[in-house]
Design goal:
Layout: H1 3-16, H2 24-78, E1 93-97, E2 104-108, H3 109-114, E3 116-118, E4 125-127
Antiparallel strand pairs: 1-2, 3-4
Helix pairs in contact: 1-2
Length: 140
């Protein structure tokens, strides 16, 4: 039985006893029932507040997950493993395959802009053609 139902049952029992309202014991019992009613209302208010708070926490959690996803996407775009610089560097890496031995090689933007590099696996000279430079730093 829920607290509200239990309180209603108790009040029904007291009414069924047909107590004399002028006796001290009856007044004390009715005061106790009034306190219990107030406690039940307070508990209901707290439960409602907790439900609202839980909904707000869920909403904040979802928003935080969206922010984390957004930041993770940004991290993937800007991570730099090509040198000993910090993660904010503007180095860009490219995956190339050696046409002779098939080795996959990671080269940075400067290497591509230099035009050639020997394959570290077989020594074949790899040539890079740069049609349009998309960076703002050079004047091509």
């Amino acid at each position: 039985m829920e607290t509200v139902e239990s309180l209603g049952y108790l009040k029904g029992l007291l009414e069924g006893l047909d107590l004399d309202d002028n006796k001290k014991e009856t007044k004390a019992i009715k005061a106790i029932v009034d306190v219990l009613e107030n406690l039940v209302e307070d508990i209901d208010d707290v439960a409602e507040g907790m439900e609202l708070l839980a909904e707000q926490i869920d909403a904040v959690d979802e928003d935080l997950a969206d922010v984390e996803d957004y930041l993770a996407e940004d991290d993937d775009d800007f991570d730099c493993d090509c040198c000993d610089c910090d993660d904010d560097c503007e180095c860009e890496e490219f995956e190339v395959e050696c046409p002779l031995c098939g080795a996959e090689i990671t080269v940075d933007e400067d290497t591509v802009l230099s035009g050639t590099i020997p394959c570290p696996n077989c020594g074949e000279m790899l040539e890079f053609e740069v049609d349009d430079c998309c960076c703002d730093d050079c004047e091509d």
